[in-house]
Structure formats: C-alpha cells, structure tokens
Amino acid sequence: MTTIDVSTPPSDRAGAPAWLVRGLLTGAILVSAFLLFSIQPMFTRMVLPKLGGTPAVWSVAMVFFQTLLLGGYLYAHLSATKLSTRASVLVHLALLAGTTFLLPIAVTTKLGNPPADGEAAWLFAVFALSTGLPFFAVAANGPLLQAWFSRSAATRGLSPYPLYSASNLGSFAALLLYPVLFEPMLDLKSQTVAWSVGFGVLALLIGAAGASVRSAAIERGHSAAVADAAPVTLRQRALWVFFAFVPSGLLVAVTAHISTDVSSGPLLWIIPLSLFLLTFVLIFRDRPLIPHRVFVTAWPLAAALLVFGMTAANLHVGLAVTLHVAAFFVAAMLCHGALYAARPDASHLTEFYLWMSFGGVLGGVFTGLVAPHVFNGIYEYPILIALAFLCLPGALAEPRKLALRAGAPIALAALGALAWPWIEPAMKPFAQKIVMVGVIVVMSAIFLARRTPALAGGLFAGGLAALLVVNTGSDFEHSVRSFFGVNHVVKLEGGKYRAIVHSNTNHGAMRLLNEDGTPATGRPVPVAYYRPGGPYETAISTLRAHQGGRFGRVGITGLGAGGLACHARDGEAWTFFEIDPEVVRIARDPKWFTFLRDCTPDARVILGDARLTLAEEPKPFDMLALDAFSSDAIPTHLMTREAFRLYMSRIAEGGALVVHISNRYMELRSVVAAIAHELGLVGVARIEKTPDAIARDPSNLAIGSEIVVLARRTQDLGALTTTPGWETLTPRAGVAAWTDDYSNTLGALWRKER
Q1: Whole-number pLDDT of residue 659
Q2: What is the pLDDT of residue 196?
C-alpha cells in the first residue's frame, strides 16, 4: 500500500483544537447523512409519474442507492489509502464543486417512457442519470471523514467508529422528517432547491473540516499505524460481507412482505428502514446502549414469534406488522452487533466500510432484483430469517461442519416443498400433523440456537418451509410474481368464488358455484365492488342511460380479474389499461376468469402505465373509469391535478369520469374534491360501507366501496345528482389538491382515522 506524501509544515503540527476538529467532522457527517436519506424519498416521489406507485419501485430505488453507496465507499477507500490527507481534501472539494453544476436535481428525459419489460433496468438508468453524481458525492462522506478523523493529531487515540453512529442519526432524522415536514409543506421543486442549499452548507462544512484536519495531520504517524496494524484476512472480509448481507436483504424483504402480504398501508417502508438505521446508532459505539448478548438471547424467540406471524390465520394487521418489525429489529441488532465486533483497527476503517457496503448491495440485489425473477412469492424472506441464525456467536466458527448441519435440513425441506404439489392429495388428511411436526422442528431450533446455531438455522428453515407449504392450502390455486408485486388466484367462501388477490386486497372475483352448489354457467355476473346495485354499477348504468342507453367508447384504467367487463353492452367499445403483464395473463386465461372472454371478447387491453398510455389515445371516451390500484392504494401519481387534467382531456363532450377511491387507510374524497374545484369540474360521491344485511348474505360477495363521478357540467352527471345516497362533491377546508410536485399522505391517513 502506497501513500503520496505531502509534508506538513512544522508550524501546522499544533493544528486546531480537538473539540473543533471533532465538531466540524461530526456536523459535516450529520448534514451529509441527512441529505443522503432525504434525496431517496424525494427523488422516488419525483419518478413515480413515470412508473407508478408499486413497492417494487422503492425496492429498485433502495438497490440503486445501495449500489451507489458502494461506489462512494470505494472512492473514499481509495482516497484515504492512496492520497495524503491534504490531497484527499482537495480532490473531494473539487468533486463537491463539480456536483453543484448538476443541481437542482431533476428527472432525466433522455430515456423516454419505460418499456413494457425490463422496468427495473430502465428505472436504474433513470436514477443514475438524474441523481447519480450528487448522491455519490454525498455517499462518500461517512467513511472519508472518519478517515480524516483518524489521521488528525487533535483526535489521536479516539475511535472514529462512533461517528458512523452520528451518520445514521442524521439519516434517521431525515427519514422521519420527510413525511411529517417536507412532503406536506413543500412541493418537489421547493424540496430540490432546499436540498441544493443544504448541499452548499455541506460543502462549506467539509471545507472547514478539511482545513482543520489538514493542519493537524500527521502523515508519517498514520503510515506507521497502517504498517503496524494486523493485516486483514480473506475470512474477515467474508464475515463483514455476510454480516451486512443478511440485515440489508431482510430490510428489503420485510418491507416487501408487510406491504404485499400483510398490509398495504402507505409509508410502511419507513418503519423497517428507520429501525435499520437506528441499529447502527445503538451498535456503533464504544459502549453499546443495549448489550449484544440481549439480542443473541432474544433472536430465537423473536424468530419463533415471526413464524407465528407468518402462518397464523386471521391475525390482526397491527399485531402482524408489529411481529415482523420487532423480529427484524432484533435480527438487525444481532447482525450489526456481530459486524461491529468484527471491525478492524481504525487504519483499515475505509476497507471495512467498503466490504460492509458490498454486503449491503448484495443483500439488496438478492431481494430487490434477483428474487422477483426466481421466486413466485416472497420466499427470500424466510431464507434470510434462517440465515440470521448464522450471525449468532460461533455459528461460522467451523465452516466444514456448516454445510452438513445447516444444509441437510434445508435440502430435505426443499425436496418436500418441490414434491408437495404431487403428494398433497395423499397427504391432505395428515396436513395438521405435518404442521405440528413443523412447529416441533421450529421449537427445537430455538433450544439448539445457543449450542449449535448452524444446525438451528437449518432446522428453522426446514420447519418454516413445511409450515408455509402446508398452510398455503388448496384455496391458493396460482401465484405469480412480477415487478409490480405478487398476485394470487384463490378460492373464497368454500370454493363459491375465485378471486385475484394482491396483498390482502381483492382485485376482482368470479362466481364458480351457485347457492345450491351447482356450477355457475352462462354470462358471469360481476360481484364484490362491481355487483349489481352497488355504487359502481349504479354510476355506470345511470351515466349510460343519460347518454341514450349506450356508450360509444369506454376506458377502464386497471384490469384486475376483468369484472367490470360484464357491465358492457352490445355495440360498446371497451378498452382496459393495465400496467402489470401478469394481471393481463391471469384475466385472459379462461382457466381462471372468463369475464373478458364472455363479456368483452373484442376489448382492447393496453399494457403500460395509465398516464402514459392514455396520453397516446387518439379518440375520446364517453366514460372513463379510474380503477387502478397498487394493492389497497391508488398510486399517488394517478391522483394528482395533472393526472385528472389528462383524464378529462380524453373524455368526450358530455362524458364523465368515474373514480374508485375505496381505501382502508386514506381518505381520498377530499383530495379529489380539491382537484375538481381547481379544474372547474362538478361531481357527486357515494360512500358505501358494507351493511350488516349484505354482510350476512354472501350471495354476491358484497364489499363496501367509495365512488366519485366527475364531469364538466352538472347535466352530464344525469340522474346521479338526485339518486338517494349520492352527495354533491364539495371541497374540504384545509385540504389542498395533490399535484405531481405535492402530496400529503399523512394528512389523508389522519382524516381516515378521524
């Protein structure tokens, strides 16, 4: 290892006082981390109008930022090991100065619209061209400034690792303040300007910190410390990578799981990411606030509770999310505690962070990019849970025995899972016993965790696989995963209905059996949200009657199972806009659903984001329905003033827009009312909660719904203005229209709770 020597004049060796050096470096690291984690939600919001509000967009964003963080750490490592402190400071200030010419941040237009396939690669390129260099310049600061700290004579003898705790404290603050303060108070343009100002403040802080460290630097002493330090072994590097890989992968996996399979509540991704950052704050200290042995003891129990959360039926959403998040926190503390315990001498600090970042990238790539193409469910999640057992003390001490202890139970479980579709009919009478065996195996893993953690991890993985496979049951007929999430085809009400489910949200169902148990035949009758007599059907039939008993052209954004198709009438031209190709395949396959085949065989199905594909439609629609949901929520970019202006531009004179805004978590009626007011539109709305009488009568699988109908003139709404249950849409005081630059999801959450 070579060092470019730039001699420090004797007059400079006294240097700045320790409190000033430490204060400037700590302040710069805090501001840097704050900017680093405020750019992530900000830019992800900016790109949503391009690709939609799906959990996969956030997963790809996390992988991109983790990859660029690795690049920043590599730059910091090379700068700290190949340059003197003075040269390192000058090069970094030059990088910061060059970055200012790319501010404020904006979404690139060079790549055009997203492709029908390869969305992840396209999104990765958009992130790189739009925000690559600013993020890279900020990402390098954590390890680089810690390296300067370790070279300072004023801070000689002090550990630089606690500064990483300060870095994550800044990240934690940014993450919590963004949805509470920045998003509701500032539009995106103002956010980018504020970020640019913050970047300028950061550059000044780094310049001052670099000057104070440079004047106190002792290059010869640092070179001697590097020479005296124990060399880093290949095993050490592998451990750093692994201990970072597991919690990083779990971060993406648990976020995808709770937002896809447990609850689709908005901003849920903030909880695990905040806890992930908090673990660094708690662990990277000379004296951890909570002893590591606490999490060593707690992890097997937390894993067992997690199994309960993953396999228990009808578990309350709040309890389920709590179990997953709590177990993730324990796992992250366990792994990061092992990582900190394996840290090297401060002279190898930047290399340590480089390999740690590499492990983080591998974890994100595995869960965010590889798993969606390899697995048809969130199977990477239980895999990573089992791997967390290998972060227990002593688990990796005997590599030769590791494969046998952990591999044998996993291999047996994998063979059983692969064979299950063929042996299920014969094993169905013994399913309950298999579940009990799985529970016993998992419990055995808990008691073995302290003595033989590798065997415990293998047993845990095997037992969990048995539980998950058996618990899937015959109600699940088909599962498929795409960039936009996991879609399940399931049977409901004892086989009376078949539905397509994304997360825990029903996206359309078809009757299979009549009430007397005979097979349902003939033209399918829409059920659930789209049932006869429901608000949706009332809106469609009333608007059709007003337009002479027949629509000319009808557009539907969001396909689902295709249930709305059976509200079509002869002579009407229907067009569906759907972003997920797997949803289209399911809806078109008569093995699963026959709505399209039996009701609108000539309907067009256009693949792509509704905003982009609608903009290319040459002819207007007599009725346009917004029925596009990502799990339980309408993607934010489809609920903005710009989006509604586009919708109305594609509606013929005298036509209307029907908006389905049913949502468990957010109150969206007032948002639509504010948009309508700004665009000069009139509207009516109906909120229908499932009545007890309907709930007791499952003959049409009734689900309560909330519908808004907008038009240019009151007369275009037809008889809806006088139909019982329908109310005139009026703006609500204090609720602003959402735009492509502004939204307030916390406000919508708060109004729903009230």
Answers
A1: 94
A2: 94
